[in-house]
């Protein structure tokens, strides 16, 4: 069983914000296969589907970003899931819009959702896809920036990064080792 988790904030108010790009990747994957995240448990919305003979969970924590780890931990415990079978997708200020970066482990980089995930998993060693949203300009506070929507000029780049992230997840689901997927998508 494998799981792909997209981090974000629940509700219409946050739907199109930069902080919800992890949710957007989950929605892209679900749309590709007509999967419906119609189950509610683990403080999140999820689906359990089959992909090439293996069970796959898509999870969108509904805890709000800063408590994402609670949902991930609850899902892992329920399914007795191994850490190596999980990818966490989230927004990254240090990458420009359109860029993605896959990593096998790492720190939180100031991202509270990732910090909480590390706290609840007890390790920094989990697969992740960081989706670039860029840094705020004009002294906009980071909180206002991540909770703001993408400007028109970034929309195409963001769509491309969402598609690339979903493509990378698909390759991993098809059995390609994550290191190979990382080498492909980080170039």
Automatic annotation (TrEMBL):
Keywords: Cytoplasm, Hydrolase, RNA-binding, tRNA-binding. PROSITE patterns: PEPT_TRNA_HYDROL_1, PEPT_TRNA_HYDROL_2. Pfam families: Pept_tRNA_hydro (PF01195). It is found in: Cytoplasm. The record marks 9 as: Discriminates between blocked and unblocked aminoacyl-tRNA. TRNA binds at residues 14, 64, 66, 112. It catalyses: an N-acyl-L-alpha-aminoacyl-tRNA + H2O = an N-acyl-L-amino acid + a tRNA + H(+). PANTHER family: PEPTIDYL-TRNA HYDROLASE. Monomer. Belongs to the PTH family. This is Peptidyl-tRNA hydrolase. It comes from Oceanobacillus caeni. The lineage of its organism: Bacteria, Bacillati, Bacillota, Bacilli, Bacillales.
